[in-house]
Amino acid sequence: MSEESLQTVAFELCRDHHRRLVLSILLDDERPMTLNDLSKGVATRAHGRPITELPDDAVVDTYCRLYHIHIPKLADAGALTHDVERNLVDTGERYGALRPYVSRIVASSARPAMPSD
């Protein structure tokens, strides 16, 4: 895959806030984790509060969105794998090639916005 194609895929994957958070967690941990743990991590980052302060439906909603929408899209792009039987999410075959682009996108989206004049 060309550098331009990888960059395009990375931008497409990072276009959604939940997918950016999933990729951010993978960048930070780079280890297999259950979809349940990943959902908790995404929910806490999305809401900016500890898991103990989140309503149960926030985690359930995040889990459902990840399971049905975002994890399949990330898996189709090769950024991660999802073992449905074991419910484990891990980095995929294209993760290494996409990592530099995703890392820059995630880092730039985490920066506070510059004040406008």
Report on the structure:
- Strands 1-3-2 form a 3-stranded antiparallel sheet.
- It is mainly α and 117 residues long.
- It is built from 5 helices and 3 strands, in the order H-H-E-H-H-E-E-H.
- The protein has helices at residues 3-14, 17-29, 35-47, 56-76, 95-110; strands at 33-34, 80-83, 88-91.
- Helices cover 64% and strands 9% of the residues.
The radius of gyration computed from the alpha-carbon positions, rounded to a whole number of angstroms, is 14 Å
Biggest sheet: strands side by side, in what order? Answer: 1-3-2
Series of H and E elements: HHEHHEEH
Report the biggest beta sheet as strand number plus sense, adding barrel if it closes: 3 strands, antiparallel
Assign a percent range to the helix content.
Answer: 55-70%
Q: Uncertain spans, ≥5 residues at pLDDT below 50?
A: 113-117
Tell me how many strands there are. Answer: 3
**How confident overall, as mean pLDDT?**
91
- N-end to C-end Cα span: 42 Å
Number of helices: 5
Q: How does the overall form come out from the CA principal axes?
A: globular
Strand proportion: 5-15%
Structural class: mainly alpha
